[in-house]
Amino acid sequence: MKKKKINWSVAVMLLAAATVICSCKREITNLSADSPLAEGGRLAKLLTGSTSSLATVGSSYTIPADTITDHGNAATTGSIAWYLATYSGGSVAQPNTFYLQKGATYMCKQRLFIPANARISQTGTGTQALVKIDAASYNDAGSNHEFIRMSSNSILLHFNIDLKWMPTNGIFFPAGADDAQLINITVQNGKRITGGTSTLIYIAANNVTVTRCQLRRAGCDATEENTVQGGQMISVYGQDIEISHNNMAVSAQAGIGIQASAKNITINKDTIYDTGRAAATQDAITSYHVGTGTTNRNISITNCLIYNNRNHGIHVSGYGYTIMWNKVYNAGYSGPTGGYTGSHMGANIWLGDYKTPLDCSGNSTITNNEIGCTLGGGYVFKVTNYHSASTTIQTTNICNNNKLISGTCN
Fold it and tell me: Which interval of the chain is the signal sequence (predicted)?
């Protein structure tokens, strides 16, 4: 797998561990301490403790909240958009850093464009600054209907983003926005779309990192059941992507949707729960019926805690998966009404396809997971239509040994 080039020209400074969103630091028992993707390694080179502040290398600017009613208007002197347009992002070697005031609220009536190399953070630790859409006056512009559009080498660090149910895509990484990063960001309240899909984070660029973030309410809130509204937490189209140490909950559709174009994906130490509220047919992590043949996609899902998802916990098919040291349970969950018992009785982990023509799955390893019981009445662990010679399958730590291993494609 290609090593990610975390293209920092600045160091992340140590601050008190209490500033990290505590829900993003959920510990998982019975996971391998010597996992190659456990704490340390690439992540340690990026983060050396808390993730609340950046050392300044280029110029720095503090953006006051003041009484500005639209921080998305570049024509308004002193707005976020004005600072970004006026001073730009600097260079790779000398990036400009823009500081929001901690605890302050910044209202926006239109999208924000983050220039290449720019970093947006907040002053000091404590309550996160809030960048919030003005729902009454929001202009959903942009070809991808996004609120925040990232550029290459740009970084968002340690503040809160409230989408107010308005943009189709909350944070959008277009093709070419390579090496961009989200660190310790809260993103919440993605758009409700009947018959469509919205995302909190949409990644079409390469070498993107999303880490230590908290994602909530993608296309629905925690009181909506069996909706027809679409909403994913993260949709991945790019390559060489790291999604790690995040906490994600409440979505109409999937938690993480990995598209056919995506390769070299690392998903590590994420907590994902309460996904698939749209008619209970969406998974926590999903990438099946992708039609990529025997292409090795190199997708790693490790050390994650996944539970209470309406359909499957992890459902993937094709070649090139490593699924290890995860704790997955309570697939087929349907909230207080009980387990879902329709045609998609959720498995906690499923390597396989059910749509015609079936993907053949192979060159994959599924071991050392803690596979708990489900609530929908189906198998807790499934491997179907697989290439047996290149697939390693665990045989223990499966609730009641309730598994289905069936149908080879040798």
Answer: 1-23
Structural tokens at position 126: 């404590």
pTM of the model: 0.87
Q: How far does Cα 409 stand from its chain's mean position?
A: 32
Sheet of 239-244: strand order equals: 60-63, 97-100, 119-122, 155-157, 181-183, 209-211, 239-244, 263-268, 296-302, 319-324, 364-367, 391-393
Task: Encode pLDDT of 168-180 as tens digits.
Answer: 999 999 999 999 9
Segments of 237-277 assigned E as strands? 239-244, 247-251, 256-258, 263-268, 271-273
User: Parallel, antiparallel, or unpaired: how do β-strands 160-162 and 130-133 relate?
Assistant: parallel
**Do 375 and 332 contact (CB within 8 A), yes or no?**
yes
Distance CA 371, CA 288 (A): 20
Q: Which residue has the tokens 């993730």?
A: 51
- pLDDT above 80 (res 403): yes
Burial annotation 65-98 (CB, 10 A radius, 16+ → b, else e) = beebebbbbbeeeebbbbbbeebebbeeeebbbb
C-alpha atoms less than 13 angstroms from C-alpha of 370 in its C-beta half-sphere? 14
In terms of Cα–Cα distance, which of 284, 300, 295, 282 is closest to 340? 282
Spatial contact of 171 and 146, defined as CB atoms under 8 Å apart? yes
268-296 per-position pLDDT tens digit:
999 999 988 876 568 999 999 999 899 99
The rounded distance, in Å, linking the Cα atoms of 211 and 249 is: 15
Is residue 123 within 8 A of residue 101, CB to CB? The reply is yes
- The CB density around residue 14, as the number of other CB atoms within 10 Å, is 13
pLDDT at residue 377, as a whole number: 80
138 to 82, 108, 143, 203, 271: CA distances (angstroms)? 18, 7, 15, 23, 32
> DSSP characters for 63-121?
E--TT-S-TT-TTSTTSHHHHHHHH--B-SSSB-EEEEPTT-EEEESS-EE--TT-EEE
Domain spans in the chain, listed from the N-terminal domain onward: 282-409
From the CB of residue 151, how many other CB atoms can be counted at a distance below 10 Å? 20
Separation CA 184–CA 394 (nearest Å): 34
Task: Report the alpha-carbon distance of residue 110 to residue 321 in Å, rounded.
Answer: 40
Q: What are phi and psi of 287, to 5 degrees?
A: -165, 75
Q: How far is it, in rounded angstroms, from Cα 62 to Cα 398? A: 53
